[in-house]
Amino acid sequence: xxxxxxxxxxxxxxxxxxxxxxxxxxxxxxxxxxxxxxxxxxxxxxxxxxxxxxxxxxxxxxxxxxxxxxxxxxxxxxxxxxxxxxxxxxxxxxxxxxxxxxxxxxxxxxxxxxxxxxxxxxxxxxxxxxxxxxxxxxxxxxxxxxxxxxxxxxxxxxxxxxxxxxxxxxxxxxxxxxxxxxxxxxxxxxxxxxxxxxxxxxxxxxxxxxxxxxxxxxxxxxxxxxxxxxxxxxxxxxxxxxxxxxxxxxxxxxxxxxxxxxxxxxxxxxxxxxxxxxxxxxxxxxxxxxxxxxxxxxxxxxxxxxxxxxxxxxxxxxxxxxxxxxxxxxxxxxxxxxxxxxxxxxxxxxxxxxxxxxxxxxxxxxxxxxxxxxxxxx
Length: 378
Hints:
The protein has an eleven-stranded mixed β-sheet. A six-stranded mixed β-sheet has the order 7-6-5-4-16-17. The chain is 22% helix and 26% strand. The protein contains seven helices and 17 strands. The protein has a single domain (2-373), classed as Metallo-dependent phosphatases (Purple Acid Phosphatase, chain A, domain 2, 4-Layer Sandwich), CATH 3.60.21.10. Strand 16 (346-352) and strand 17 form a beta hairpin. 47% of the residues are buried.
Protein backbone atom coordinates (compact mmCIF):
# COMPACT_ATOMS: atom_id res chain seq x y z
CA UNK A 1 0.00 0.00 0.00
CA UNK A 2 1.11 3.54 -0.75
CA UNK A 3 0.68 6.15 1.96
CA UNK A 4 -0.57 9.35 0.38
CA UNK A 5 0.66 12.86 0.91
CA UNK A 6 -2.94 13.80 1.73
CA UNK A 7 -2.90 13.25 5.46
CA UNK A 8 -3.01 15.18 8.67
CA UNK A 9 -1.40 14.41 12.02
CA UNK A 10 -4.70 12.88 13.08
CA UNK A 11 -6.00 11.08 9.99
CA UNK A 12 -3.96 9.13 7.44
CA UNK A 13 -5.23 8.09 4.01
CA UNK A 14 -3.50 5.21 2.24
CA UNK A 15 -4.04 4.27 -1.40
CA UNK A 16 -4.04 0.51 -1.79
CA UNK A 17 -1.78 -0.46 -4.68
CA UNK A 18 -1.05 -4.09 -3.86
CA UNK A 19 -4.40 -5.64 -4.73
CA UNK A 20 -6.11 -4.93 -1.39
CA UNK A 21 -9.89 -5.14 -1.49
CA UNK A 22 -10.21 -1.42 -0.71
CA UNK A 23 -9.11 1.39 -3.01
CA UNK A 24 -8.29 3.55 0.03
CA UNK A 25 -7.93 2.98 3.77
CA UNK A 26 -8.46 5.83 6.22
CA UNK A 27 -6.85 5.37 9.65
CA UNK A 28 -8.48 7.42 12.37
CA UNK A 29 -6.82 7.60 15.82
CA UNK A 30 -8.42 5.83 18.74
CA UNK A 31 -10.79 8.01 20.69
CA UNK A 32 -11.50 10.42 17.85
CA UNK A 33 -15.11 10.72 16.72
CA UNK A 34 -15.44 9.52 13.12
CA UNK A 35 -17.30 12.46 11.62
CA UNK A 36 -17.63 12.93 7.87
CA UNK A 37 -18.75 16.32 6.61
CA UNK A 38 -20.78 16.20 3.38
CA UNK A 39 -20.68 19.34 1.26
CA UNK A 40 -23.38 19.41 -1.41
CA UNK A 41 -23.69 21.32 -4.68
CA UNK A 42 -21.08 24.04 -4.21
CA UNK A 43 -21.51 24.78 -7.93
CA UNK A 44 -18.82 27.40 -8.30
CA UNK A 45 -19.57 29.33 -11.49
CA UNK A 46 -18.06 32.29 -13.27
CA UNK A 47 -19.66 34.82 -15.59
CA UNK A 48 -16.22 35.24 -17.15
CA UNK A 49 -16.34 31.65 -18.36
CA UNK A 50 -19.80 31.59 -19.97
CA UNK A 51 -19.50 30.30 -23.54
CA UNK A 52 -21.79 32.67 -25.44
CA UNK A 53 -24.05 35.69 -25.01
CA UNK A 54 -27.26 33.64 -24.94
CA UNK A 55 -26.03 31.50 -22.06
CA UNK A 56 -24.60 34.59 -20.33
CA UNK A 57 -28.01 36.25 -20.29
CA UNK A 58 -29.70 33.07 -19.04
CA UNK A 59 -27.31 32.72 -16.12
CA UNK A 60 -27.35 36.46 -15.43
CA UNK A 61 -31.14 36.42 -15.14
CA UNK A 62 -31.31 33.26 -13.02
CA UNK A 63 -28.35 33.61 -10.67
CA UNK A 64 -27.88 37.15 -9.34
CA UNK A 65 -26.26 38.84 -12.29
CA UNK A 66 -22.56 39.62 -12.13
CA UNK A 67 -22.34 38.66 -8.46
CA UNK A 68 -22.50 35.02 -9.54
CA UNK A 69 -18.70 34.89 -9.62
CA UNK A 70 -18.29 35.92 -5.97
CA UNK A 71 -17.10 32.57 -4.65
CA UNK A 72 -16.34 33.71 -1.10
CA UNK A 73 -19.76 35.18 -0.34
CA UNK A 74 -21.71 32.49 -2.13
CA UNK A 75 -19.61 29.41 -1.32
CA UNK A 76 -16.51 29.47 0.83
CA UNK A 77 -17.83 31.30 3.88
CA UNK A 78 -20.41 28.52 4.32
CA UNK A 79 -17.72 25.86 3.99
CA UNK A 80 -15.44 27.71 6.44
CA UNK A 81 -18.23 27.84 9.00
CA UNK A 82 -19.24 24.19 8.61
CA UNK A 83 -15.70 22.90 9.00
CA UNK A 84 -15.04 25.10 12.02
CA UNK A 85 -18.25 23.93 13.71
CA UNK A 86 -17.96 20.20 13.01
CA UNK A 87 -14.17 19.63 12.91
CA UNK A 88 -14.59 16.54 10.71
CA UNK A 89 -12.13 13.70 10.27
CA UNK A 90 -12.75 13.82 6.53
CA UNK A 91 -14.91 15.61 3.97
CA UNK A 92 -16.98 14.27 1.07
CA UNK A 93 -17.84 16.59 -1.79
CA UNK A 94 -21.04 14.98 -3.05
CA UNK A 95 -21.03 16.23 -6.62
CA UNK A 96 -21.54 19.44 -8.58
CA UNK A 97 -18.45 21.05 -7.14
CA UNK A 98 -18.53 23.42 -10.09
CA UNK A 99 -20.94 24.51 -12.79
CA UNK A 100 -18.55 23.08 -15.35
CA UNK A 101 -20.01 24.80 -18.39
CA UNK A 102 -18.58 28.07 -17.02
CA UNK A 103 -15.14 26.54 -16.40
CA UNK A 104 -13.73 25.50 -19.76
CA UNK A 105 -10.33 26.87 -18.69
CA UNK A 106 -10.29 24.94 -15.40
CA UNK A 107 -9.80 27.92 -13.06
CA UNK A 108 -12.79 27.04 -10.86
CA UNK A 109 -11.69 23.42 -10.54
CA UNK A 110 -8.23 24.54 -9.45
CA UNK A 111 -9.82 26.93 -6.95
CA UNK A 112 -11.75 24.04 -5.41
CA UNK A 113 -8.54 22.02 -5.07
CA UNK A 114 -6.63 24.91 -3.52
CA UNK A 115 -9.38 25.93 -1.12
CA UNK A 116 -10.15 22.39 0.04
CA UNK A 117 -6.45 21.71 0.60
CA UNK A 118 -6.26 24.82 2.79
CA UNK A 119 -8.34 23.07 5.48
CA UNK A 120 -5.74 20.34 5.98
CA UNK A 121 -8.40 17.61 6.02
CA UNK A 122 -8.67 14.70 3.54
CA UNK A 123 -11.44 15.43 1.03
CA UNK A 124 -13.09 12.86 -1.22
CA UNK A 125 -14.85 13.58 -4.52
CA UNK A 126 -17.97 12.11 -6.08
CA UNK A 127 -18.87 13.61 -9.45
CA UNK A 128 -22.23 15.22 -10.12
CA UNK A 129 -23.97 15.86 -13.41
CA UNK A 130 -22.42 19.33 -13.86
CA UNK A 131 -18.76 18.81 -12.93
CA UNK A 132 -17.56 17.19 -16.14
CA UNK A 133 -19.07 19.84 -18.43
CA UNK A 134 -15.72 21.64 -18.34
CA UNK A 135 -13.80 21.73 -21.59
CA UNK A 136 -10.69 20.59 -19.72
CA UNK A 137 -12.10 17.06 -19.62
CA UNK A 138 -12.69 14.65 -16.76
CA UNK A 139 -9.22 13.09 -16.91
CA UNK A 140 -7.63 16.48 -16.30
CA UNK A 141 -10.02 17.07 -13.38
CA UNK A 142 -9.10 13.73 -11.82
CA UNK A 143 -5.42 14.46 -12.26
CA UNK A 144 -5.74 17.79 -10.41
CA UNK A 145 -7.43 16.19 -7.40
CA UNK A 146 -4.89 13.39 -7.27
CA UNK A 147 -2.04 15.91 -7.50
CA UNK A 148 -3.47 18.00 -4.63
CA UNK A 149 -2.22 17.64 -1.08
CA UNK A 150 -5.36 16.28 0.59
CA UNK A 151 -7.74 15.38 -2.27
CA UNK A 152 -8.80 11.77 -2.87
CA UNK A 153 -10.37 10.48 -6.09
CA UNK A 154 -10.06 7.34 -8.19
CA UNK A 155 -11.72 6.93 -11.55
CA UNK A 156 -12.48 3.23 -11.15
CA UNK A 157 -12.78 0.62 -13.89
CA UNK A 158 -16.53 0.75 -14.59
CA UNK A 159 -19.01 3.23 -16.09
CA UNK A 160 -18.50 6.68 -14.64
CA UNK A 161 -15.45 8.47 -13.33
CA UNK A 162 -15.69 8.36 -9.52
CA UNK A 163 -16.34 4.77 -8.44
CA UNK A 164 -14.13 3.65 -5.56
CA UNK A 165 -14.19 2.10 -2.10
CA UNK A 166 -12.91 3.44 1.21
CA UNK A 167 -12.32 1.52 4.43
CA UNK A 168 -12.56 3.46 7.70
CA UNK A 169 -10.25 1.90 10.28
CA UNK A 170 -9.83 2.75 13.94
CA UNK A 171 -7.65 0.99 16.50
CA UNK A 172 -6.65 -1.45 13.76
CA UNK A 173 -10.28 -2.49 13.17
CA UNK A 174 -12.42 -1.66 10.17
CA UNK A 175 -15.60 0.02 11.37
CA UNK A 176 -17.19 1.11 8.08
CA UNK A 177 -16.93 0.76 4.32
CA UNK A 178 -17.76 3.80 2.19
CA UNK A 179 -18.69 3.38 -1.47
CA UNK A 180 -18.29 6.40 -3.73
CA UNK A 181 -20.61 5.99 -6.73
CA UNK A 182 -20.92 8.04 -9.92
CA UNK A 183 -24.57 8.53 -10.92
CA UNK A 184 -23.47 9.92 -14.30
CA UNK A 185 -25.70 12.23 -16.38
CA UNK A 186 -23.29 14.91 -17.60
CA UNK A 187 -24.57 15.46 -21.13
CA UNK A 188 -24.48 17.55 -24.28
CA UNK A 189 -27.51 19.83 -24.65
CA UNK A 190 -27.77 20.45 -28.40
CA UNK A 191 -30.93 22.53 -28.02
CA UNK A 192 -29.03 25.14 -26.00
CA UNK A 193 -25.40 25.50 -27.12
CA UNK A 194 -23.28 26.54 -24.19
CA UNK A 195 -25.19 24.51 -21.60
CA UNK A 196 -23.74 21.16 -20.54
CA UNK A 197 -20.84 19.46 -22.30
CA UNK A 198 -19.75 20.65 -25.72
CA UNK A 199 -19.60 18.00 -28.47
CA UNK A 200 -15.83 18.47 -28.78
CA UNK A 201 -15.14 17.73 -25.10
CA UNK A 202 -11.84 15.80 -25.08
CA UNK A 203 -13.17 13.04 -22.82
CA UNK A 204 -16.73 12.79 -24.09
CA UNK A 205 -16.27 9.07 -24.78
CA UNK A 206 -15.69 8.51 -21.06
CA UNK A 207 -18.95 10.18 -20.02
CA UNK A 208 -22.21 8.28 -19.58
CA UNK A 209 -24.68 11.01 -20.54
CA UNK A 210 -27.76 9.30 -19.13
CA UNK A 211 -28.33 9.65 -15.40
CA UNK A 212 -28.23 6.34 -13.62
CA UNK A 213 -26.18 3.48 -12.18
CA UNK A 214 -25.12 0.92 -14.78
CA UNK A 215 -24.93 -2.86 -14.63
CA UNK A 216 -21.13 -2.91 -14.45
CA UNK A 217 -21.22 -0.53 -11.50
CA UNK A 218 -23.59 -2.85 -9.64
CA UNK A 219 -21.35 -5.82 -10.46
CA UNK A 220 -18.31 -3.90 -9.16
CA UNK A 221 -20.12 -3.03 -5.93
CA UNK A 222 -21.16 -6.64 -5.35
CA UNK A 223 -17.71 -8.01 -6.16
CA UNK A 224 -16.06 -5.46 -3.87
CA UNK A 225 -18.46 -6.14 -1.01
CA UNK A 226 -17.89 -9.89 -1.32
CA UNK A 227 -14.12 -9.42 -1.35
CA UNK A 228 -14.27 -7.17 1.73
CA UNK A 229 -16.42 -9.72 3.56
CA UNK A 230 -14.06 -12.56 2.66
CA UNK A 231 -10.96 -10.71 3.81
CA UNK A 232 -12.19 -8.59 6.73
CA UNK A 233 -15.51 -10.09 7.76
CA UNK A 234 -18.87 -8.35 7.71
CA UNK A 235 -18.28 -4.58 7.76
CA UNK A 236 -21.23 -2.16 7.83
CA UNK A 237 -21.32 0.18 4.85
CA UNK A 238 -22.60 3.47 3.51
CA UNK A 239 -22.63 4.98 0.04
CA UNK A 240 -22.28 8.51 -1.30
CA UNK A 241 -23.76 9.48 -4.67
CA UNK A 242 -24.97 12.67 -6.27
CA UNK A 243 -28.47 11.73 -7.45
CA UNK A 244 -30.89 9.90 -5.16
CA UNK A 245 -32.33 6.44 -5.73
CA UNK A 246 -36.00 5.84 -6.53
CA UNK A 247 -36.34 4.33 -3.03
CA UNK A 248 -36.14 7.89 -1.69
CA UNK A 249 -39.48 8.50 -3.41
CA UNK A 250 -40.90 5.21 -2.14
CA UNK A 251 -39.86 6.07 1.42
CA UNK A 252 -41.84 9.30 1.38
CA UNK A 253 -44.84 7.86 -0.44
CA UNK A 254 -45.21 4.83 1.84
CA UNK A 255 -44.28 6.34 5.20
CA UNK A 256 -45.85 9.78 4.75
CA UNK A 257 -49.11 8.96 2.95
CA UNK A 258 -50.55 12.42 3.54
CA UNK A 259 -47.80 14.14 1.55
CA UNK A 260 -49.22 15.99 -1.48
CA UNK A 261 -48.70 14.01 -4.67
CA UNK A 262 -46.83 16.90 -6.27
CA UNK A 263 -43.96 16.25 -3.85
CA UNK A 264 -43.43 12.90 -5.57
CA UNK A 265 -42.51 14.45 -8.91
CA UNK A 266 -40.03 17.15 -10.04
CA UNK A 267 -40.80 20.70 -9.04
CA UNK A 268 -40.16 23.47 -6.52
CA UNK A 269 -42.89 24.25 -4.02
CA UNK A 270 -43.50 26.96 -1.46
CA UNK A 271 -44.97 24.61 1.11
CA UNK A 272 -42.74 22.73 3.52
CA UNK A 273 -42.75 18.98 4.07
CA UNK A 274 -41.26 17.82 7.39
CA UNK A 275 -39.86 14.32 7.88
CA UNK A 276 -41.04 13.99 11.46
CA UNK A 277 -41.56 10.29 12.13
CA UNK A 278 -39.44 8.84 14.97
CA UNK A 279 -35.84 8.59 13.77
CA UNK A 280 -36.42 10.88 10.78
CA UNK A 281 -35.43 14.52 10.48
CA UNK A 282 -35.22 17.44 8.09
CA UNK A 283 -37.56 18.91 5.52
CA UNK A 284 -38.15 19.65 1.85
CA UNK A 285 -39.55 22.33 -0.41
CA UNK A 286 -38.87 20.26 -3.54
CA UNK A 287 -40.32 17.18 -5.17
CA UNK A 288 -38.63 13.83 -4.53
CA UNK A 289 -37.33 11.97 -7.58
CA UNK A 290 -34.85 9.14 -8.00
CA UNK A 291 -33.01 6.90 -10.41
CA UNK A 292 -32.44 3.12 -10.67
CA UNK A 293 -36.14 2.33 -10.74
CA UNK A 294 -35.29 -1.36 -11.24
CA UNK A 295 -34.02 -1.48 -7.65
CA UNK A 296 -30.63 -3.01 -8.48
CA UNK A 297 -28.65 -0.77 -6.15
CA UNK A 298 -31.23 -1.27 -3.41
CA UNK A 299 -30.88 -5.03 -3.73
CA UNK A 300 -27.10 -4.65 -3.39
CA UNK A 301 -27.52 -2.42 -0.35
CA UNK A 302 -29.89 -4.81 1.41
CA UNK A 303 -27.66 -7.82 0.75
CA UNK A 304 -24.37 -6.24 1.76
CA UNK A 305 -25.06 -4.42 5.02
CA UNK A 306 -25.45 -0.86 3.77
CA UNK A 307 -26.75 1.26 6.65
CA UNK A 308 -26.95 4.66 4.98
CA UNK A 309 -27.19 6.28 1.56
CA UNK A 310 -26.22 9.93 1.11
CA UNK A 311 -27.37 12.17 -1.74
CA UNK A 312 -27.11 15.73 -3.05
CA UNK A 313 -28.47 17.19 -6.36
CA UNK A 314 -31.87 18.31 -4.99
CA UNK A 315 -30.98 21.73 -3.61
CA UNK A 316 -33.93 22.25 -1.30
CA UNK A 317 -34.37 18.77 0.11
CA UNK A 318 -32.60 18.17 3.40
CA UNK A 319 -34.34 15.16 4.90
CA UNK A 320 -33.13 11.94 6.49
CA UNK A 321 -35.63 9.08 6.43
CA UNK A 322 -35.17 5.48 7.57
CA UNK A 323 -36.75 3.11 5.05
CA UNK A 324 -36.64 -0.67 5.27
CA UNK A 325 -33.71 -0.45 7.67
CA UNK A 326 -31.57 1.94 5.60
CA UNK A 327 -31.21 5.65 6.28
CA UNK A 328 -31.75 7.79 3.16
CA UNK A 329 -30.26 11.25 3.64
CA UNK A 330 -29.99 14.34 1.48
CA UNK A 331 -27.24 16.79 2.31
CA UNK A 332 -27.71 20.52 2.85
CA UNK A 333 -26.85 22.75 -0.08
CA UNK A 334 -23.55 24.40 0.78
CA UNK A 335 -23.71 27.51 -1.40
CA UNK A 336 -26.09 30.07 -2.89
CA UNK A 337 -25.03 29.38 -6.48
CA UNK A 338 -27.97 28.06 -8.53
CA UNK A 339 -31.43 27.64 -6.98
CA UNK A 340 -31.65 27.33 -3.19
CA UNK A 341 -33.73 28.19 -0.14
CA UNK A 342 -32.25 30.85 2.20
CA UNK A 343 -33.21 28.79 5.25
CA UNK A 344 -31.68 25.54 3.94
CA UNK A 345 -27.96 26.24 3.63
CA UNK A 346 -25.05 24.61 5.44
CA UNK A 347 -23.61 21.11 5.54
CA UNK A 348 -24.39 17.60 6.74
CA UNK A 349 -22.31 15.95 9.49
CA UNK A 350 -22.37 12.14 9.59
CA UNK A 351 -20.90 10.19 12.48
CA UNK A 352 -19.93 6.55 12.01
CA UNK A 353 -19.30 4.14 14.88
CA UNK A 354 -18.70 0.48 15.62
CA UNK A 355 -21.44 -2.06 15.08
CA UNK A 356 -22.99 -0.03 12.28
CA UNK A 357 -23.79 2.99 14.44
CA UNK A 358 -24.67 5.98 12.26
CA UNK A 359 -26.09 9.40 13.07
CA UNK A 360 -26.69 12.54 11.03
CA UNK A 361 -26.75 16.20 12.03
CA UNK A 362 -27.92 19.02 9.80
CA UNK A 363 -25.62 21.97 10.43
CA UNK A 364 -27.69 24.90 9.21
CA UNK A 365 -25.67 28.02 8.69
CA UNK A 366 -25.84 30.83 11.22
CA UNK A 367 -24.35 33.33 8.76
CA UNK A 368 -26.47 36.23 7.51
CA UNK A 369 -28.00 35.51 4.12
CA UNK A 370 -26.54 37.56 1.30
CA UNK A 371 -25.67 37.13 -2.35
CA UNK A 372 -23.65 40.30 -2.86
CA UNK A 373 -20.15 41.15 -1.70
CA UNK A 374 -20.12 43.82 0.99
CA UNK A 375 -17.45 46.49 1.22
CA UNK A 376 -16.02 45.00 4.40
CA UNK A 377 -15.53 41.63 2.69
CA UNK A 378 -13.82 42.94 -0.45
